[in-house]
Amino acid sequence: MTQNTELARRAVVSGTLGAVATGARPAAAIGTAMLLQGGNAFDAAVATALAETVLLPSKCGLAGDLVALHLGPGSDRPASVVSIGRAPARLYQAAEDSGWARSVTGPLSVGVPGAPAGYASLAARGRLGLSTLAQPAIDLANRGITWSAVNHRLVSESLDVLERWQPEGTRYSPPDGPLALGSRIRLPGLAELLTEFARRGADLFTGALGEQICTYVTGKGGVLEMSDLQPVTPLETTPENTELAGTQLWATPAPTYGPALLEALGKGAAPETVKAALTALRAPTGRPPALVDGTSTVAAADAEGNLVVLVHSNSFPRYGSGLVVPGLDLVLSNRAGRGFTFAPGHPNAPHPGTRPPTTLHAWGARAADGSWLLGATPGGEQQVPWNTQVLDQLLTTDFGPAALGAALASARWEFGPDGELLREGAELDEFGARSSHTIVRRQADGTLTAAADPRQDAAAMAL
Description:
This protein is of the alpha+beta class. The protein has helices spanning 3-10, 25-36, 41-55, 91-97, 115-123, 130-143, 149-165, 188-200, 208-219, 258-266, 271-281, 335-339, 383-394, 401-409, and strands spanning 12-15, 18-22, 65-71, 79-83, 145-146, 184-185, 235-237, 240-244, 247-251, 295-302, 307-313, 324-325, 330-331, 363-366, 372-376, 413-415, 421-423, 438-442, 448-452, 459-462.
């Protein structure tokens, strides 16, 4: 058996009670535990995602954003949830005062958090309640997590940003040197934050915690105000749809990059097609960074027929804005700095209250036999290339475990910082792409499958 075949086999698991796929291995057990407690797929997905905010603090958190697709029993199409924060009210004026210098990190890059409202919206479709769903993450933060190889690598790649904006150090990058691989790190501030989220939900930042964040950001030179921190209203709509090779495809709508995914697939899925679809969306402010690792994904399915996939993010490349609120262990997103176009009069300029476009997106697929797939990957602007490759390979299959495993273990290509094509096994090491797909499948007979990309720390569990 070749390495790729073995990796493909291990990437996919099936069951009948439920299935969970996540970007952080320990979180998979938390999601399946929610199913065993009588929760549904929404409970499993939210509990897993909250655990990821502790296990992968550079990638996702309560100051970030969230998009999701979900499907109910008997439904013939998924629904979309897009919870992206709006521009701070004073950001446009601050950009004008700076001569429209683009702030991709630092205090002027800090966006309004959309994640609390997104998590709360999905949890409302569950049965267990936020207190139950947040408790495993709270326990993780209080007891401490083992500093993983992924976290160790992401800090090393982010030291310039963290040291620039946090010269005093943070729990993730102490002033006396990097955390050792395998060391134990306790996050009491994050535990406190999650406890308050379990109590207040989408209103998390409308009180004292919001004042603490605003004081910190403005003290660094930012413009975030309490009035900016009113709960985001998630956009809950019907996703974009197309049909290819007898398969119905859906993707989260604008302001996500879902429409670019469907366009690329519809025009043949070749690299030049994908590049054209991205070029049509990308703001003319520079090319994507070579390393993108500021996002994670979770997917879950249950025996009742619910499926959900969510993408939650601090933006990219890592550690969002580079600001970590002291006492809260909270990484602040840089969605505003990355997503808006810093040019006067531009329709994507940071006008007060507008939402920036986001590379985040999730997708769903329905085969002619009634089988469903929901999936996503992190990766900044690489999300569209990686999702296109996986879906293009699956379109002519039965979505079965073997096909899923083969698609996830197949060699990837991506675009470099100058738009050049980079291929695994050639310009990139074998499995050198940083995709981290999480996918769930519901077969027509009720069999449930979870699949996780073998490249990083993603994991799948089924019951």
